[in-house]
Amino acid sequence: MYYCMLRSFRGNNFIQLARASVSQNPQLWDTSLKLCTACHTTHSPISPLTHILQRHRSQTASYRCMSSTVRRRRMPSAFPVIDGTFHPFHKHVYEANLRNSLICQQKYLDHKQKVFKGGGENAIARHTQRNRKVLVRERLRMLLDDENYLELSPFAGFGLPYGDIPSAGCLTGIGQINGLWCVFIANDATVKGGTAYPITVKKQLRAQDVAMQNRLPCVYLVDSGGAFLPLQSEIFPDKNQGGRTFYNEAVMSAMKIPQVAVVCGSCTAGGAYVPTMAEEAVIVHRIGTIFLGGPPLVKAATGEEVSPEDLGGATLHSEVSGCVDHFATVESEAYEYARNIISTLNYELPEETSTRPEEPLYSIDDLMGLAPRSYEYSMDIRLIVSRLTDGSRFQEFKARYGTTLVTGFARVEGHQIGIVANNGELTYEASLKGSHFVQLCDQRDIPLVFLQNTSPVPPHTLSQAKAESNTNRLKAQGSMMSAVACASVPKITVVIGGCHGSDSYAMCGRAFDPNFLFLWPNAKVSILAPGHSDALVQTEEEITQINEMLEDESSAFFSTGRLWDDGVILPQDTRKVLGKCLKIIKQQEYQLSREKMRTPLLRL
Ligand code: COA
Fold first, then answer.
1. How close is the Cα of 249 to the center of ligand 1, in Å?
2. Rounded-to-integer distance, Cα 354 and Cα 377, Å
């Protein structure tokens, strides 16, 4: 009998059946496991949950949420405490790093201040007084549980060839709604009417990527005049441009990643598809409009004068077209609707743990003096590790082999991780060790954290022996790249110093698709570090020119302005950010279903 029930009660019903069985009669549940449909096991000495998780994880991932109905105990671990004291003879290095970090921190704070001003005073006045709309950060305050959200790439859009676009015209990040982590994508209409610049599109696509990779629901706050017309050729035609947002919306829906849109301003042209393709949409009366071409376009085409409200306002779309599902009289009501929609998703939340994780034994503020001002100023990476991990504990792996890479296990805010950290050049031995450790973590389902500080120069080939050793190193680095690329566990990369050359790929650079990648403000990102191009160019003039270019283009702020990362974070915030990311990543274990492709929800 239970065999039949297992067959016919796949998915949510099955989960409810399982819960009922477990709570009412654990023995029955055992009996049903004896007839497991997936492997026809007739008897198992282990619990049904363990059986399913261990044997049928991929096919039966939809059962994973059951884990929350069963009390799980973490295996005790007391990794050894590592020595994080630095020697007095490193004092001058520490002080030089600190001086540089303070300058970088000031730059970070200046950028932050600029970002908070959005499109400037006039645009803010137009937005709040003339258009009677709420500013984007205030909207987030109404939507999210609290201000404890992770903002992604806040400095994207600065220093671009077409000018400074504060926050790239749209805020993205991950915040909690009724306890559930959700990605938000919120236009800032004080920046040129919320129109989409190429960098805006890139930022939106990255946020959707984050939602897909971490299986997070996504909320769009739409207030946009569509494409920024003077740059239309860089927004419209290519694969990863405007249309990709809508393509992603469909794919995300098919992946069972819920999407909710709040129309709190203009949704013109392409923007009109965002709420229309979302699974549920809310519109704000007298503020929200949805149309492919606005009143000026209608007038130009037909000579007819029509108000935005009549052409595509809240009444039309909620009563006639059906493009939206909820009519809000004021903005605050719209965010309340959005919060209530999220609570209908039927997700489960991870259990709150009462035990507080151990703090590191060494001060996190020391990280400012450990953040290398250049590669030559790097200190033992264990000094940094000891200031990030719970209780400064670290179970090092292969401590005596390939010592220019440090690998090992630790916890950050209670989450177990595998750390892969540069401690010099990525040599042959270091790369082999890296491959081994990455695969170990993949086997054990442990997320990886890469602390990247790669060498600024490629190895020179001066003799046959050196050529051989470089070839071996090439092969070993290739293996490490394969191991990193194919590891199915979540990966987080923090560039704490240099991000240069091919070593950076093996250390899970952007191209290797980490779930999150952050930079410290002292970080340098370029194929070669400034001052190392002499062997590659001929004249003094060329050398100076290339070095100046590398200096400008390698700064963390240049990089983050172009969205090559998920943001610049201060060294002293790293532990907090890592802890938050690990919590966010973990949420997917509690979803009802992890099935891959279904059809998207269609608004018929
Ligand atoms: N491309 C480039 N710039 C645009 C733009 C667009 N699509 N839409 C608006 N802007 C600019 C305006 O020129 C103005 O620039 P300024 O601050 O330098 O003067 C700024 O954005 C704000 O626009 P404004 O019309 O003054 O603000 P608003 O709040 O009254 O209205 C919109 C905002 C978006 C509703 C309105 O500008 C509009 O309808 N724009 C056209 C939308 C459209 O048809 N898009 C089609 C794209 S394919």
1. 25
2. 41
SS3 label, residue 245: helix
Task: Tell me whether strands 448-452 and 218-224 are parallel, antiparallel or unpaired.
Answer: unpaired
Return the number of other C-beta atoms located less than 10 Å from residue 521's C-beta. Answer: 24
Strand 415-422 to strand 448-452: parallel, antiparallel, or no bridges (unpaired)? parallel
Residue identifier of the C-alpha nearest atom 17 of ligand 1: 192
Q: Measured in angstroms, how far is the CA atom of residue 305 from the centroid of ligand 1?
A: 18
CA angle 521, 525, 526 (to 5 degrees): 155
The residue type at 566 = D
φ, ψ (nearest 5 deg) of residue 25: -155, 90
The 10s digit of each residue's pLDDT in 407-458 is 999 999 999 999 999 999 999 999 999 999 999 999 999 999 999 999 887 7
Distance between CA atoms of residues 366 and 384, nearest Å? 9
Cα 519 to middle of ligand 1, angstroms? 34
DSSP string across 54-90: HHSTTTTGGGGGGGGGS---PPP--PPBPP----GGG
For 39, half-sphere exposure in the C-beta direction (CA atoms, 13 angstrom radius) is 16
Segment 524-564, tens digit of pLDDT: 999 888 777 666 667 888 888 888 888 899 999 999 999 99
Q: Please give the number of the atom of ligand 1 that sits closest to the Cα of 294.
A: 44
pLDDT of residue 71: 54
**How does pLDDT run across 446-471, given as a tens digit for each residue?**
999 999 999 887 767 677 777 888 88
pTM of the model: 0.87
How many Å lie between the centroid of ligand 1 and the Cα of residue 226? Answer: 9
Is residue 315's pLDDT more than 90?
Answer: yes
pLDDT at 598: 67
Write out residues with Cβ below 6 Å of ligand 1.
Answer: 126, 131, 192-193, 195, 225-229, 266, 268-269, 294, 297
